[in-house]
Amino acid sequence: MPPISLTPEERQFYQKNGYVHVRGLLTPEDAAAYRRESHALAERIGENDATWASQRGQGTRITHCHDVQFQSAAFSRLLLDERLTGVAQSIIGPNVQLHHCKMFIKPPEKGSPFPMHQDYPYFPHARHSMIAAIIHFDDAPDEKGCLRVAPGSQALGPLESVGADHHLPEFPLETATPIPAKAGDAIFMNYLLVHGSGINRSNEARTTLLVQMRDPEDEPLTEGHGSRGQGMMLAGVDPRREAFAFAWERKTA
Ligand SMILES: O=C(O)CCC(=O)C(=O)O
Prior knowledge:
Blueprint: H1 8-17, E1 19-22, H2 28-45, E2 63-66, H3 73-79, H4 82-92, E3 96-106, E4 114-117, E5 131-136, E6 147-149, E7 177-178, E8 186-190, E9 195-197, E10 206-214, E11 233-235
Antiparallel strand pairs: 1-8, 2-3, 3-10, 3-11, 4-9, 5-8, 5-10, 6-7, 6-9
The structure holds 2-oxoglutaric acid (AKG).
């Protein structure tokens, strides 16, 4: 499949609002195939609930798996798919590096919500090049707990947050802008954008892959969000000399 890049209008929209909704990034057939891969993976790993601490005890669940490229080669191919990396290059620049990825399946009727938050506090970087692409493998209307955002909130920079979930109560989920999506759509957003999502109350699962990417020259400000596969180049090159170090040359803690 040929690369996709953002149009000048889409780029302008991203700059202003901190996100862009790319419709039809994947074909419906591709999305359906990745949906099957995701649900087969969920069957293999079994119970693996990732409901956030503040949302536990309310009868909801969400299945997740980090770094799915280590579970199925189909996901390795998706990480390098030029439709994904082409849009990422339109936002980040020519060099795009994987930080981590995670599959989420919000089960029918009781799929856990995500409180409104920024991704920034989990893995702060000096130049804020970090973006997430949320790729939808099935339709995500509002009643399925689609993504909700506070457009333009990335311009506020890092915000003071509450608790382990880095919740931002001044941005209520109910009044945030819903972004209903179709199977194959992807939403690209900066890690400073305030976002969350509601409960899946529908009778079908919501299935997504979130791919977090950065410019390899953007320095992490903290340690501690390592992930299998972190540092893999998805597009372009890593120009830093220190990245080209043999294992025995690398500093150990
Ligand atoms: O998939 C969603 O609805 C949101 C996921 C999210 O906000 C996160 O993992 O940080």
